[in-house]
Amino acid sequence: FWSVPEAAALLAAPGASALIARIPSLAPAAGAAIAGPTYNEHAAAFAANGWQVGPPQDMPGARASVIVHPNNPTGHWHAAAPDSALSIVDESFCDTDPSRSLIGAATRPGRLILKSFGKFWGLAGLRLGFAIGDPALIARLAEQLGPWPVSGPALAIGTAALSDPDWAAATRQRLQEDAARLDRLLTRTFTGTGARVAGGTPLFRLYETPDAAALQDRLARHRIWTRIFPWSPTLIRLGLPGPSGWDRLEQALAG
Questions:
Q1: Which domain holds residue 106?
Q2: Which of 163, 185, 204 is the last residue of a domain?
Q3: Cβ–Cβ contacts within 10 Å for residue 202, how many?
Q4: What is the pTM of this model?
Q5: What is the pLDDT of residues 58-92, one digit of tens each?
Q6: Phi, psi (rounded to 5 degrees) for 66
Q7: Residue 255 pLDDT greater than 90, yes or no
Q8: Separation CA 204–CA 229 (nearest Å)
Q9: What is the DSSP string of 85-119?
């Protein structure tokens, strides 16, 4: 499904978060360059293991580098994997466009590609994620996780999901259509939000609006949860509604 290179190793884990928490222990603590703003848990994990964390421009010669590809919450796609002794590419949101995956670079020593079942498949509760890459690092992660890291039901469901390319293709098409629909609602139909598209992926959308906290509160009153950010008073991230959620979203935006 992911076109894993023959020379790369693969490890199933109880969620990508379990891997993120353990990866910093694979090398002696030093500098970790993490391009942001991005998913907070990478920086938190490195900091908890004694690493000095900062943006790439402030961390020349960093021993570790992390990119989220595409990035959460901006949706930015990176041109290449970072080049450092420990190089992490988090592709949790990449399955919407596998042609842009950096999986081909998984054979480089020191590199790990992370995959998640909580995003494209919407199975966060399954607790299933994967690390793909340097066999030496994969072996050390496997030792840390122990002999039975993933449940039998999770492995069975994951196998079925990865063996169904037709479902994946249909889902990619639906997500593209739903993302475009959400953009129209926020930026054209309900212009009172003052929103414009600022980024995102087919799994979530990022909007710039005059007052993100006010829009979040308005939607929350209709039981629609969104995400805003302490580093920006104007950006708000929305996930795509399920089939039964569109009417409620339109009511919230109209109110």
A1: 9-163
A2: 163
A3: 24
A4: 0.96
A5: 999 999 999 999 999 999 999 999 999 999 999 99
A6: -135, 135
A7: no
A8: 15
A9: SEEEEE-TTGGG-GGG--GGGTTSTTEEEEEESSS
